[in-house]
């Protein structure tokens, strides 16, 4: 299978049209006509992911986060872009299109947390997040414990002062969609990254809000990305999903 053929297969599952305007998805580095020898799945294309690809014989990395969103001015030794090119490793990114698509990151996050009856929640920016409900009402403290149990990491939250039954959620960095959650009438909003002042905005609007960690909200979907690649490519597919960001 050629690299460009896998890109097409992934876009069938995670349509490019679902990507946010700012995003950069698809084949970012490499030759579309290269034959795929092996694939490494990663949340981020880090130096660690590149070394993992080399060790496993992969000449393609399929990741979630793009390494570039706009023009780059240099690509020198030690840069990720340079290392990919000099190593003959192509890079495909499936980002906000993977977040929003059926079976993508938002759906995986909802499923992991037991949020059911999910529906699309269209934001003012045109990004699609999810809205659903818990099987039974929980206090903010108990929902925070539940999130930590299911995702690990650390949970930062603010209590809106009422039981939580309905929840809006966005994987990754979802600060921009807090007001969409307000307007949708849910009891709580959950994302992987929330700006500080929005916790107070939430409290003032009687909305509980939860920051469950960017990595934790998305790494759970790497199995879905791996399965998508495996369904299209009959070859070696390995997963590299180490969190290289340390917390003391």
Question: How do the strands and helices of this protein lay out in sequence?
Answer:
Layout lengths: L2 H11 L12 E4 L8 E7 L2 H10 L3 E6 L14 H8 L2 E4 L2 H5 L4 H8 L3 E7 L5 E11 L1 H12 L4 E3 L5 E10 L4 H7 L3 E6 L2 H9 L3 E4 L2 H6 L2 H11 L3 E5 L8
Share of residues in strands: 25-35%
Q: Report Rg.
A: 19 Å
Which architecture of the largest domain per CATH? Answer: 3-Layer(aba) Sandwich
Q: How many separate domains?
A: 2
Task: Give the count of helical stretches.
Answer: 10
Helix/strand-derived class?
alpha/beta
| Largest sheet descriptor | 6 strands, mixed
Strand tally is: 11
Shape category: elongated
Examine the coordinates and then state which fold CATH places here, giving the name of the CATH topology of the largest domain: Udp-n-acetylmuramoylalanyl-d-glutamate--2,6- Diaminopimelate Ligase, Chain: A, domain 1
Q: How do the strands line up in the largest sheet?
A: 5-6-8-9-10-7
- Look at the structure and give the mean pLDDT: 96
Q: What's the name of the CATH homologous superfamily of the largest domain?
A: NIF3 (NGG1p interacting factor 3)-like
| Secondary-structure element pattern, one letter each | HEEHEHEHHEEHEEHEHEHHE
Account of the 3D structure:
By secondary structure, the chain is of the alpha/beta class. The protein folds into two domains: 3-97 and 221-238, NIF3 (NGG1p interacting factor 3)-like (Udp-n-acetylmuramoylalanyl-d-glutamate--2,6- Diaminopimelate Ligase, Chain: A, domain 1, 3-Layer(aba) Sandwich), CATH 3.40.1390; 105-218, 3-Layer(aba) Sandwich (Udp-n-acetylmuramoylalanyl-d-glutamate--2,6- Diaminopimelate Ligase, Chain: A, domain 1). 35% of the residues lie in helices and 27% in strands. It has ten helices and eleven strands. The protein has helices at residues 3-13, 47-56, 80-87, 96-100, 105-112, 140-151, 178-184, 196-204, 214-219, 222-232; strands spanning 26-29, 38-44, 60-65, 90-93, 116-122, 128-138, 156-158, 164-173, 188-193, 208-211, 236-240. A six-stranded mixed sheet has the order 5-6-8-9-10-7. A five-stranded mixed sheet has the order 1-4-3-2-11, with helices on both faces. Strand 2 (38-44), helix 2 (47-56) and strand 3 (60-65) form a beta-alpha-beta unit. The longest helix has 12 residues, at 140-151. It is elongated, with a radius of gyration of 19 Å. 46% of the residues are buried. The mean pLDDT is 96.
């Amino acid at each position: 299978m050629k690299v460009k053929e896998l890109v097409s297969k992934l876009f069938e599952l995670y349509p490019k049209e679902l990507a946010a305007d700012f995003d950069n998805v698809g084949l970012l580095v490499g030759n579309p006509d290269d034959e795929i020898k092996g694939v490494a799945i990663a949340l981020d294309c880090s130096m660690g992911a590149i070394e993992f690809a080399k060790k496993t014989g992969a000449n393609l990395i399929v990741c979630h986060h793009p390494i570039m969103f706009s023009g780059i001015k240099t690509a020198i030794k030690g840069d990720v872009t340079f290392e990919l090119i000099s190593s003959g490793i192509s890079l495909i990114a499936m980002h906000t299109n993977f977040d929003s698509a059926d079976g993508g990151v938002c759906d995986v996050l909802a499923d992991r947390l037991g949020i059911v009856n999910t529906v699309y929640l269209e934001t003012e920016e045109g990004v699609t997040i999810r809205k659903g409900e818990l099987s039974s009402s929980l206090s903010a403290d108990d929902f925070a414990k539940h999130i930590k149990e299911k995702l690990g990491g650390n949970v930062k939250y603010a209590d809106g002062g009422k039981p939580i039954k309905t929840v809006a959620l966005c994987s990754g960095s979802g600060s921009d969609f807090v007001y969409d959650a307000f307007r949708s009438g849910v009891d709580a909003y959950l994302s992987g990254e929330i700006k500080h002042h929005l916790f107070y905005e939430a409290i003032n609007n009687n909305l509980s809000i939860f920051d469950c960690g960017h990595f934790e909200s998305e790494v759970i979907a790497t199995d879905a990305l791996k399965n998508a690649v495996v369904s299209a490519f009959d070859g070696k597919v390995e997963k590299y999903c180490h969190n290289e960001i340390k917390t003391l």
